[in-house]
Design a protein that fits this description.
By secondary structure, this protein is of the alpha/beta class. About 40% of the residues lie in helices and about 15% in strands.
């Protein structure tokens, strides 16, 4: 006997695999916040345990108001989800049909492709320049079938960004019916003066949506919490496709506390900048190439080191109790992505790579 069969496009999907971890050592494979989370957010989760028998607020009203107050946004144009991943999936349900296309940069976040596959749509990837999104290449690949353009800015796994003017040029070059999704998962880490998180475009344009996550700067990855801001019509479509209680009460409470803790966010950014600079300086001294990053991770390129490639480096680091991210699935077989960890974790990464690069 044979049981029910899923749709053919579902069987073509290779499930997303998160960063692996060891029973001990350093996990630097998922870009998690090495400082943990805000103490206020942790306490909010503890307090939320008193009402576990009650359904959460299905509209996440207090959380949307807190986000709106922080960023100067209309709460009615916000929607919350179980991580930004769920929001991407909701976009797929609302806007993609079999035969449609999504457009992304060459090394775009893997979940975009999964969203397309779930909907029977096709993913079109545009070549990058220097591991950075090329707006002209994206615009050249827009077709009548294009429905969504996903732009992670900064991008994961490369750590690069494009300036505000380039994002505006991309939006201006898209047909009005094409939705531009600006994924700002790492936006809080960027301090470049020419960077914009895209909120202005999402406020003024009918085809721009910005997504954000509480998993990175806020350190709430375990709670699965994200949000999106954009045109009322897009927010309405997402609200019609999401589950009625898609964000838990604990996540909502923690999110409110986290977004109001400016001191924790500032400390996270400051320590990331310090440690990223120290790590990349050490990589340069070893003769290892890396992609300049504005995020809490660094992409290391082992292409120029025959016999000391990324696979050998990955195995060597694991022997030292350090897990980083293999990025083969992103079309970067010669690279490893390393999250910025604590000072001790980064010390151990530097020491291990120095030993790995020693002449043999």
């Amino acid at each position: 006997m044979t049981g029910p069969k899923p749709l053919a496009n579902i069987l073509d999907i290779t499930p997303y695999k998160g960063g692996q971890k060891l029973s001990s050592g350093w996990k630097l494979s998922s870009n998690e916040n090495p400082l943990g989370c805000s103490a206020a957010a942790r306490q909010a989760v503890i307090d939320a345990a008193d009402t576990l028998s009650l359904y959460p607020d299905g509209g996440a009203v207090a959380l949307r108001e807190a986000i709106g107050s922080t960023y100067g946004l209309d709460p009615q144009r916000l929607v919350c989800g179980a991580g930004s991943d769920e929001l991407f999936q909701l976009l797929g349900r609302a806007y993609l049909s079999p035969g449609d296309e999504i457009l992304q940069s060459e090394h775009g976040f893997l979940v975009y492709r999964l969203v397309a596959q779930q909907s029977g749509a096709t993913t079109i990837s545009a070549p990058e320049k220097g591991f950075t999104t090329d707006v002209d290449a994206l615009l050249e690949r827009v077709t009548p079938r294009t429905r969504i353009v996903f732009l992670a800015n900064p991008n994961n796994p490369t750590g690069t960004y494009i300036p505000a003017g380039e994002v505006q040029r991309l939006q201006a070059g898209l047909p009005e019916h094409v939705l531009l999704v600006l994924d700002g998962a790492y936006a809080e880490y960027v301090r470049a003066p020419d960077y914009s998180d895209g909120m202005d475009l999402a406020t003024d344009m009918p085809n721009v949506l910005v997504t954000r996550t509480f998993s990175k700067i806020h350190g709430l990855a375990a709670l699965r919490l994200g949000w999106a801001y954009g045109p009322a019509s897009v927010i309405d479509a997402l609200n019609r496709t999401r589950g009625p209680f898609n964000v838990s009460a604990a996540a909502q409470a923690a999110g409110i506390a986290a977004i109001q803790d400016d001191a924790f966010q500032s400390r996270s950014v400051g320590e990331t900048e310090t440690e990223r600079a120290r790590l990349t300086r050490a990589l340069g001294e070893m003769g290892l190439s890396f992609v300049p990053s504005v995020t809490n991770f660094v992409l290391i390129d082992f292409t120029d080191h025959p016999g000391r490639g990324s696979k050998a480096a990955d195995a060597f680091l694991r022997q030292r109790g350090i897990v980083v991210r293999d990025v083969d699935v992103y079309g970067l077989p010669h690279c490893l992505r390393v999250s910025i960890g604590t000072k001790q974790a980064n010390d151990d990464v530097i020491s291990a790579l120095q030993d790995f690069m020693q002449p043999r």
